[in-house]
Design a protein that fits this description.
This protein has 140 residues and is an alpha+beta fold. The protein folds into two domains: 41 residues; 96 residues, K homology (KH) domain (GMP Synthetase, Chain A, domain 3, 2-Layer Sandwich), CATH 3.30.300.20. The protein is built from three helices and six strands, in the order βββαββααβ. A three-stranded antiparallel sheet has the order 1-2-3, with no helix packed on it. It has a three-stranded mixed sheet with strand order 4-5-6, covered by helices on one side. It is elongated and about 55 Å long.
């Protein structure tokens, strides 16, 4: 078992900060659509980023295990928050990963590694909303 501890402190109005030992402080706020300021990370941003990051780090594990030589990995993620009968819920997170390989013959293995990453990402597996992953192998 692993544990992850963070501190969250209110600063003013709809702004706070979060941090954990040995890591930089991250300013956080209520989303602008709910009266928060622009330009500050929100819980929804952090959740969406956490899922995309978890998929990437899981993929890196499988790339390394399969000896896939990665040249570039970039992803974009979109989290959708909706009003539902039970309240506001994140109803989906869609991640699009764009991958360039050192060796184009490893494309099928890279797609398989990405499928494994999607299936084993502990953060997306912990959520009730669906998480989808689209993978594009780029010719760079």
């Amino acid at each position: 078992m692993w544990t992850y501890e963070v501190d969250v402190n209110w600063k003013s109005e709809k702004i706070g900060e979060t941090h954990c030992a040995g890591k930089p402080v991250v300013e956080v706020a209520t989303p602008p659509e709910f009266g928060g300021p622009e330009g500050i990370w929100t819980p929804e941003d952090l959740l969406t980023s956490a899922v995309a990051t978890c998929i990437m780090t899981s993929a890196l594990f499988f790339f390394n295990r399969s000896k896939i030589n990665l040249k570039e990995y970039k992803s974009q993620a979109v989290g959708t928050l909706e009003k539902t009968p039970t309240g506001l819920l994140m109803t989906s997170i869609k991640v699009t990963a764009n991958i360039a390989l050192e060796d184009a013959t490893q494309a099928d293995a890279a797609k398989k590694a990405m499928e494994q990453a999607e299936k084993t990402c502990p953060l997306s597996n912990s959520l009730t909303c669906p998480v989808s992953l689209d993978v594009n192998i780029l010719n760079v």
